[in-house]
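May I ask for a sample protein chain and its fold as tokens?
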Amino acid sequence: MTSVRRLAYSTLFPVTTELELSAELVAFLENGGRAILFGEDGTEYATGIIRPDRIRRETADAWRAVTDRARQIAGPAVLALDADISAVHRLHRLTAALPTLSESQAMAEDAFTDRIEAMARDARQLGINLLLSPTADVVAKDNPWLAGRTLGDDIADVSRLVAAYVRGLKRAGIGSTLKHFPGNPVITGLPASQDARVPLKMQELQPYLAPFTAGIDAGADAVFMSPAIFDAVTPPQSGSISPDLIRLLRQELEFSGLVITCDLDHRSTLGSRSLVDIAVEALVAGADLLLVSPAAVPHLDRLARAIERAVEDGRLPLARLQAASAAIDRVSS
């Protein structure tokens, strides 16, 4: 296998909804893959409630066995999951409890940070080193995707909680991820299955950048791009493949960490195009780590080969691929 293809594998971020390494994921790690998201099923995502049978089956020992095996195969790796206050906390009872939203909003900042740190230290003991949290979105109105799944509806208060959450993770030695940049105050549908749009101009989006700025200033390790189509850029396109929005993140917000796409096979991102084309486009746009759903796991080799071909034919500069892989190194080490 070429060194370029191994680099290509390193930029892929497959989701597994089961606490196991399938034969496909083992092959992925052996071929250069270095990131896995331990996700939840659709019902768990929608309700924020982890299935009782999963809770019984997924013990602390089971988590450590899987994360240890992943690192035995891949070496340093990004092993991630969601730990949201108003949505899914994937580890559920296996960590110190997260505060409820009402408790979070009423807490002194130091007390909130302490609660987040306690949860994160427990996650770290299970082999997890990156949380896809906190949510920095603030919902203004009409949001079928994120309504009830954020840290509040006041920009200043959400900014305070986001920064405190990041500080708690940092104290625990675990990475944090701000999602879903550049914010989705209004959205027309569900990005996974619809052509969901954020129908706002850039100047209307600007106030909603504040929680992301607060999280970056607090030391966030990663930023997770929105899958929605943004009318604020020309032509309108998904945040995950938008060079303009990634440039906004890099230049205006001065973020130098890991940029993660949302699921590239979400309808709002994929549209009518092929997943291999979207993967290359996301890297060219400036993304570092490409999230793909469980349905795409059988096609990881095809995606890596497509990225390799894009380097060979000049569509994707080798330096861009190397920079993406280096950004992943900084989080996985």
